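Hi P.,

Sorry for the delay on this. The queue was packed all week, but I finally got your sequence through. Input first:
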Amino acid sequence: MPETPSKSRFLPRFLIVPALALLAAGCKPAAAPGGPGGFPPPVVTVAAVEPKDLAVNYEYPAQTAGYREVEVRARVTGILERRNYQEGALVKQGQSLFTIDPAPFRVALARAEADIAVADARLSQARREVARLRPVIEARAISQKEFDDAVSAEQVADAEVKSARARVNEAKLNLEYTRVEAPITGATSRSVVSEGTLVSGPSVLLTTVTQTDPIYVIFGIPDREYLALRRDVEAGRLKLPQHGRFQASLKRSDGKPYGRSGAVNFTDVRVNAQTGTIEARAEFANPDGALRAGEFVRVVLQGAVRPGAIVVPQRAVLEGPKGKFVYVADAESKAEARPVEVGDWAGAGWIVNAGLKPGERIIVDGVLKLGPGAPVKIAEGKAEQPAGAQPAQPSAAASGAVTDAAKGKK
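Then the structure:
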């Protein structure tokens, strides 16, 4: 006969389900006071909001240019006889650069000097004729017309002498112009024409001379950044150097700094329609010729200050559907989402233009574990200071235009 199951091995189903529920309830850990769901609040690091005067630097790509760049051209037409300088060398003002064949001009001078001798002789004859006829006309021995003709002849002869002397001076100038001189002191470029070439006066470029001490640095300020600078000045968020005169420094193409400082001395009032930038210029001393015209450099403008600037670490600023915000730890140690208006970069942080007040505590580390109103536990130890204690180096607004910006503030 088959074995009959024992009542002790099997329990009724209606008794099994309640037993499992009681077992599960007994295994659940006890709720911990504090955070949502009974979990402890997250530990976060905070930084105190402390407004500070922040030095601001602006950096732009730039190119050097000669203080003066002069095209050397001949003033007379002739055959280029000689080049009298070494290409690329430094020349002094008045130094001979080229010689144009002077022979035709010497002949022209001799002809002009002969013409003045003839004119002088005619003038002398006319003066003697007037002197001879003067007593005769007083005695009424000749007609008045005869005397007047003699006086007119003297005046014509005198004018011919002046004209001949002008031609002599012109011939002398042309002879001097066969010696083409350096108009300024500076470095020469290569010779565009060679010896034996017919030079047709000023229409032919011979070479250029560039003065590089001092030297100019030309750079462009994007129009959008210039407008942002103007707005910051008008809102009192930015203070420009006195008279809007920025100090400047240079970085060479290899990244090394140029050892001398300069200053911005010009800002254009127009916007370049092709580049959308405002041209500005700084001037640097270059006594040893270390900088050459045409170099690509980076210019750094210094002297602007953001008074009472609030700078927060970059990692504390989050992006939400309505823009950027930070978490602020309130008096009850709860995270409050605070919308902020940020400006330029400052080192590793953001400059906050609006949304924070001095003395508030922003949450820097642990923000990814937070939600609005969540309780937090502030880590013990010294609160982290916001970034930006060092001078900022944003690539936003710029410099040379500061003169106009200062005027706009007034």
